[in-house]
Amino acid sequence: MKVLVVGANGQLGARCCAVLVEAGHDVRGSVREPARGEALRAVGVETVVADLTDTASIRVAATGAELAILSANAVVPRAGDRPAVVEEGLRRAPAVLAGQGVRRIVLPSVPVTDVDEAVPFTRARRRLENDLAGLRVETVCVRFPPFMDVHLALVGSSIPLRGAQNATVDRPSPFLRSFRNGTGTLVESRGLMLVPGPRSHRNAFITVTDAARAVVEAATRDEVEGLPHATLEVAGPQPLSWDDVAATYGRLLGRRVRVLSTPAVVYAAAQKVLRPFAEVPSNTMALNRYGASSETAWTNVGGGLLDPASMTTVEEFLREKVRLPAA
Ligand SMILES: NC(=O)c1ccc[n+]([C@@H]2O[C@H](COP(=O)([O-])OP(=O)(O)OC[C@H]3O[C@@H](n4cnc5c(N)ncnc54)[C@H](OP(=O)(O)O)[C@@H]3O)[C@@H](O)[C@H]2O)c1
């Protein structure tokens, strides 16, 4: 099948391309600059230059595609990106894809929480999910818990980044880079883990590879429960608290790892203070607020898309990473 991945240079987008190629599909990936498509072309992906803020480019990218995965997002924007403008483009994209003959659109998404409306990214995501349910083509929203590759690094570790390709945490975002400069290896060097919200909050963490496998299943399976407009939640293999994650890091590093938590109210205040003059830092605080307010203690491992026994646990993920050389 001919599948378009919008946002093929992202961590999830690139893994989706790789899983699709391995399964023998004809894969087209959108990139924003031709030079940034080299690694994708090397593994057999056809690249096309497209930007969500340029509807005509999305129309061209979709020509001939049967299925589309909408993975592009402005959560960790490059310098000069305007997240609100990207969200508007993302919102226009599904109708454009449908107009070009795409028959199923898959949106990787995030869980519903009480603070969704207060967080620009999740507010936009809920509108987008809603729009998808009104389209005449098939749509699947696949909601995921936090990705291990991303969130087990953001707590202050470089271990999840070992051997990672297209890492979200390594994106050229000035704000993220300055945050990582101060906190990037706190877990391994100081035995300190920084977490959003209560340390007892539990999440069914999932690897990017398992998430990509689930997205590809949602795109390519004939039958998906809930079609023509399905919404699925895909849990990772174990719901773990932040304390559990710290204990896992501690076991693997042979040292005690303490947890330092920041309450949602602190992020909410920072979001508000920064909003008038610093959109990206304010949005990042809003996302931390979302993370601090939510739990995904889900037990529906694999969400009906993946065999639970085939999924990677936090311990397996970190154990494998610890074996790799530090970057
Ligand atoms: N991280 C998590 O824990 C988590 C949990 C649940 C669900 N999700 C979902 O998983 C997805 C994450 O995808 P990811 O890992 O691939 O993200 P990512 O690593 O942050 O990459 C973002 C991608 O979006 C592209 N992009 C940004 N602005 C664009 C624009 N204006 N036009 C076209 N492309 C643009 C980027 O292109 P450039 O490289 O050119 O900048 C990049 O390819 C999201 O849909 C998110 O909602 C994530």
Structural shape: globular
CATH classification, class level: Alpha Beta
Largest sheet: 7 strands, parallel
How are the strands ordered across the major sheet? Answer: 3-2-1-4-5-6-9
- Annotation, overall tally of beta strands: 11
Assign the CATH superfamily.
NAD(P)-binding Rossmann-like Domain
| Overall number of domains | 1
| Average pLDDT metric | 97
CATH fold name: Rossmann fold
In the predicted model, the low-confidence regions spanning at least 5 consecutive residues are none
Q: State the helix count.
A: 13
What is the alpha-carbon Rg in Å? 19 Å
Task: Bin the helical content.
Answer: 40-55%
Order of helices and strands: EHEHEHEHEHEHHHEEHEEHEHHH
- Tell me the strand percentage band: 15-25%
Task: Summarize the structure in short.
The protein has helices at 11-22, 38-42, 55-62, 83-99, 120-132, 148-154, 174-183, 186-190, 208-220, 242-253, 264-274, 279-293, 314-323; strands spanning 2-6, 26-31, 46-49, 67-70, 104-109, 138-143, 192-196, 202-203, 229-233, 240-241, 258-262. It has 327 residues and is of the alpha/beta class. The two termini are 37 Å apart.
